Amino acid sequence: MTDAPNVATYNKSGTIKIGADNYTKGVDSFALVPTTPTAQHTDIGGGVQSVVGIPTWVCQMSFAQDWASEGSLSQKSIEWAGQTKTIEFTPQTGAEVVTVEVVFQPSQIGGAAGGVNKATLNLGVNEQPDFGA
């Protein structure tokens, strides 16, 4: 039996590109989250079959709001609302690039006083993530 490697990663070296632009410095959290439909069927003889469907994905991205810098993700999220964009996510140095197509939504504007204003987007992903693109 082979021992499968599993080297834990500390989230500090990932990258986020949307189109040709690098948004790594503003993004503090990025996750691709699947929802997989499941069902069970019990036949007349008492057998149980589990059925697993094709997952749908959501891109969860949190970033620092920046309304002063031209081309910031804050500004672009409003400009791109309703548009399909390609995101390339590299979870850590040396890892494969994961590519997804998302439909953009506008981000939050503003927040609480006394801290960094952040925005979180939950973007629908078209198709399945592409690994190693």
What features would you describe in this structure?
The chain is mostly beta strands and 133 residues long. It is 5% helix and 46% strand. The strands form two sheets. It has a seven-stranded antiparallel beta sheet with strand order 2-1-7-8-9-6-3, with no helix packed on it. 14% of the residues are buried. The model has no long low-confidence stretch (mean pLDDT 91).
Task: Give the strand line-up of the largest sheet.
Answer: 2-1-7-8-9-6-3
The helix-and-strand class reads mainly beta
Q: What gross morphology would you assign? A: globular
Q: What's the β-strand tally?
A: 9
Residue ranges: pLDDT <50 for 5 or more in a row? Answer: none
Strand content: over 45%
How are helices and strands ordered from N to C? Answer: EEEEEEHEEE
The chain-level mean pLDDT equals 91
Oligomerization state: single chain
Number of helices, counting only DSSP H or I runs of 4 residues or more: 1
**How many strands, what sense, and barrel or not for the largest sheet?**
7 strands, antiparallel
Radius of gyration: 19 Å
- Please bin the fraction of helical residues: under 10%
Give the end-to-end Cα distance, rounded to a whole number of Å.
31 Å
